[in-house]
Specification:
heterohexamer, A: Alpha-Beta Plaits, 4-stranded antiparallel beta sheet, 25% helix, B: 359 residues, mainly alpha, Na+/H+ antiporter like fold, binds adenosine monophosphate, binds sodium ion
Chain lengths: 100, 359, 359, 359, 100, 100
């Protein structure tokens, strides 16, 4: 089975920032992503106790390398200052590149 | 009954005791927790019950008299929000963003506080006007919209000022800024109005109005008789979250702590007196005051995080839930009840000055 | 009471109003949502309540008369499923997979619809035969099993045909196909019968039968008095999901929309008349009709996604939940009630022709 | 009433039937499941209800007589834990860790078992001392703390022995071991005491004591009338989990199966007799016996997994939930009820020997 | 600490396809996996609102390279057509290769 | 956008072992992590049915390479024997290395 190299961008951020992330993705014509709620600890303290809005969410996006840099740049620029947020990039392989 | 006595007897009701219990559980670092699904469901349930109750009352008693109290509530709410801003920005030296965020948090209303108020009145055997639920729904977004509007105006102004000092030929950025502000405002407006709290509240007012007492009978056990039991369970979780936040009080600072107690007292008592003047009943005036005294701690973060992301949620959530909420339901509610009793007595028999001595 | 009047008064009951409210909340894109754990629990609760109620009734009234209605229900259900298939495949031009999936979705029964029917009858002050809960349980898997059997037979036939045109010596693939069909069928059979809906329903019928009224008394408040309140909460979520699906109606197409309204009407009225002929009570005949009219939208996807993965869930879920369910509980239920009233009157006093004019 | 008759009539109560139903659902591999949020919430609710009930009773009846039963319960509980250990280690040949873990699982108490006991008594029309809820709370951590203390002592001793045989100059490791033991113990102590079960139980006892019957009236429907309905729902889930564990019975082995039945019987009957001697009522003695007979299957794993990670949870959870719990609520509870009836009769009229023949 | 290279296969698919995936794993003698419910968006639209059955699930499987290709091939062949599904492969390192 | 190479350690273990993992992280001065509940199957059988305490949890930690080895070693040494647990390491890239 032939596998093709693409990128996986993972953003862990506060739940109320999810909308912003997805808007940025849409702006770059990306409509495929996976999300799930998580808890965590970091510079902004323990997150996940208390109200649901104070939990975190992970947003995972498989994408081709060419879009990655712009998206990472925009998220960094617009969101690092005000939101609890961590992002990282992974090298992965997929079967159907045309999907991403 | 005297104030202290009423505070004390209020302190010993299940609602308050379970809240205090939650605080203690959090402070001793117990792992006690109401599962998320339950504590997400309970506010929906409480708002549905409040709405149905309000709608049924409105069907029984009519709502012709609703218009003036509602407009007055909106007006006062906006005035109070501006007032909060001035106090926070000038006296409290908070930055623009935190000031507006806090101003609107205290200008907005708390549905949970309102539930507790309803239960308190029930316990005192006092009724209230059903249309107050409708006022609750309308007040929800008002102060947010105003605060966000003003924040964005202020930011746009700052940008403009900065631009003009650099170059004079390029104003497109400012236009973009203003454009963005408009987009944000319309988003927030939509988010507020379609927010689950308002939607369930208004929806249930309408349903309650349509079905009336008779249609309500088949669901009365769930939406009326279980009401206090449900609040009590929710109060455990509120207590736990408030307890977890107590550690953040130092971040909040002395000024904001004082603000979180004095402001609601001022707003609430004004509210009671204004409501009495407008002819609301003893209980209605208490709830009207409570609306103005309460701060929003569930709806606020959801809206402010998007609208004013620069503001620190630890400030507005902690002060609203950790200080104002307990103060309101434990101490201010009985105080407002006494104030309303006196004010209503006055109206009836001009007995104000004798009241405190003789009663 | 006339049809329109009954429809109107049905429209204004809490159950229907909350459902409509849910639809509106979804259409205005509110974030209102019943937490998943609650909306997963509610069908279990509703089925438990239905089962207990049915079991207790069967203990009181006996279930000697159950056999014939059950066999008739099974027979009609199978006939209807075949009939649906023919209509969908020939007139609707749907492909094999979608036709069988839709045929069985409408051949199967909807437990939520049944709950609403029970509440409707309670509201009308009319009782029904307890064994209908047992028929509900038995009908659940029947049409699925048939549809899956027929689909797999059809697929195997196609494979066989294809094979024979290519080579003549190698039939092992066909055998594998048939083998796979058998495996699939036995899996689906197991999945259906051990599916939570049937298990809780049958289990609670048995428990209700054993404990009777007396044993029930200690849990009556939860499983009887709170029933309508619980449905009402569930209806919000059903309305929300139905509302979200309304956008998919264009994918469904005009033919299927018409099918989703006409077919249940036909099936339901036949059901009412057949039940009346078999001697069921006024209310019992309505529920019998409702069983045949209803389409499955919770159990169906879980079974069909495994059994006929080629079929598009957007078709069968959207039409069953988005069209047929609202139509059934808002309009068809009152219609069937009138039909049953007329049919029962006829039997009693041959008053059919005078009924509409005089009553 | 005779033992068998009472067992049979107990078997046919909703609580037991729903439990058995859950077991069957699990055995036929149904996907039936109570959503996690609900089954996490129910024990909190049950403990709150038990606590409130106990607190109100204590306010009504006083709790001067509580001290001796509580001290006796603690003493017996410790003795029993040691006894279990000896039996498991010597006769059962379990290793040190499993022996202590099992010993404390059976020395601890089960809150769910206690709920069922309360319902059983209610069904029999018999009351019990409110302070038993307080004894339940205090017994929770006792046997764990002891078992953990002993385990750590034993391990430290082993380490010391090993060290001494190798080198003689280096005892620092032993000190580290003992230090670690202390840390562990204080952690476990904190975890036990702030564990949600104890916190909610003690908190609600205090709240119940403060509010009394009168304050309770507004939440009575939720915390009293719905109690049995809620247990019944929880029993489905308990049955399902117990049913899933039945497959592990072979891992548990014949010795532990016998232990899981004989030990509770012995402990429970001793408990009933001791309680009777101390002057507890018929119902109170049954509950006292049940406390000693019950094994912990919710709190135990949470504590033991940290404190004695070397012990196999499949042993202690499976035997406590899969064997002892069903045995206790189905068979032992009626037996203890008869024993308590006889014992109380004796005290009144020395009728012991005639009882069995004549009644 | 010596680490050994193995593969991590991640399948994101509709919840009702989880059984099929696990059956395929079993067929290839793999019994270790981790699953959790997620929401997502993709070619088949938003998933995660509405009924629980309309959510997605992630299935993660650590395995040695030699089995990977067959499993990916079988999932692609039998499931790509009918199910909402995305899969990708990751290079990871573990301590105990004998477990996988 | 410049990305920097760091490590992602993922531990999948029984929920009651989460505390131990986080204690080990703290001991090595790591306070940032993300957690979420998962279900799974492995050498110790199906996990995720029954009591909540019998589910699994995933703990994900972004960290610099230099700490990785010690942490993996300590987890392996103290927990492999008694707990249902799997761990793996991933190469990832992040924007702000100073955070980790
Ligand atoms: N080192 C880390 N490894 C994994 N997740 C992290 C790390 N640091 C932060 N996070 C996650 O990112 C969220 C926000 O981080 P922070 O902005 O540092 O509070 C935290 O709540 C965690 O869920
Ligand atoms: N580009 C992507 N990145 C991450 N997850 C995706 C992506 N595309 C699809 N998915 C996930 O895979 C599921 C099925 O995808 P699809 O078959 O395209 O609808 C979606 O619901 C998402 O959870
Ligand atoms: N091969 C694997 N791939 C992914 N996750 C695994 C694998 N093996 C075990 N796990 C996870 O690790 C947990 C503990 O594994 P074990 O100790 O083997 O029972 C399991 O319940 C799974 O969640
Ligand atoms: Na206010
Ligand atoms: Na049907
Ligand atoms: Na015990």
């Amino acid at each position: 089975m032939k596998l093709y190299k693409v990128k996986l961008l993972t953003v862990t951020c506060e739940i109320l920032a999810q909308k912003n992330i997805i808007q940025i993705l849409k702006k770059h014509n990306i409509t495929g992503y996976t999300t799930y709620e998580v808890e965590g600890n970091g510079a902004r303290g323990l997150r996940g106790q208390g109200f649901k809005n104070e939990k975190n969410v992970k947003v995972e996006v498989i994408m081709r390398e060419d879009k990655l840099s712009d998206i990472v740049e925009e998220i960094s620029r617009t969101m690092f200052a005000n939101f609890a947020l961590v992002l990282y990039v992974n090298d992965i392989s997929v079967v159907r590149t045309e999907k991403f | 009954m005297e104030v202290l006595q009423l505070i004390q007897s209020n302190l010993l009701t299940p609602i308050i005791l379970f809240f205090l219990f939650g605080i203690i559980a959090a402070r001793i670092k117990s792992d006690l927790k109401i599962p998320e699904a339950i504590s997400e469901f309970l506010p929906i349930y409480l708002l549905a019950a409040i709405g149905l109750h309000g709608g049924i009352e409105m069907r029984n008693a009519g709502f012709e008299n609703m218009l003036i109290p509602m407009l007055v509530a909106i007006g006062i709410s906006l005035l109070f929000t501006l007032n909060h801003y001035q106090i926070l920005r000038r006296l409290g030296k908070f930055n623009l963003f935190d000031s507006y965020a806090l101003a609107s948090t205290y200008g907005a209303v708390g549905a949970v506080t309102f539930s507790v108020g309803l239960s308190f009145l029930k316990n005192q055997g006092v009724t209230s006007e059903g249309y107050l639920a409708a006022i609750l729904a309308v007040l929800e977004p008002i102060s947010f919209i105003m605060a966000i509007f003003l924040t964005n105006m202020a930011v746009a102004k700052q940008i403009r000022a900065k631009k003009q000092s650099f170059t004079n030929d390029d104003v497109s950025d400012i236009e973009i800024g203003i454009q963005e502000t408009k987009t944000k405002l319309s988003q927030v407006l939509h988010e507020s109005i379609t927010g689950k709290a308002i939607v369930i509240l208004l929806g249930c007012i309408v349903i309650g109005y349509i079905i009336g007492e008779e249609g309500f009978s088949s669901i009365k056990i769930v939406f009326d008789e279980m009401f206090t039991g449900a609040i009590v369970i929710f109060m455990i979780e509120m207590g736990i979250i408030a307890g977890q936040r107590l550690g953040d009080l130092k971040k909040v600072g002395a000024f904001l702590i004082a603000f979180a107690i004095i402001m609601p007292t001022f707003n609430g008592i004004i509210g009671v007196l204004v409501a009495t003047t407008m002819g609301l009943s003893l209980g209605g005036a208490v709830l009207f005051g409570l609306l103005l005294a309460s701060a929003s701690f569930i709806a606020a973060p959801a809206i402010l995080r998007h609208a004013i992301p620069e503001a620190k949620p630890s400030l507005y959530i902690t002060s609203a839930l950790g200080i104002t909420f307990p103060y309101n339901i434990i101490i201010l509610l009985p105080i407002m009840f006494i104030v309303s009793s006196i004010a209503h007595d006055v109206e009836g028999s001009i007995d104000l000055f004798n009241y405190i001595t003789w009663n």
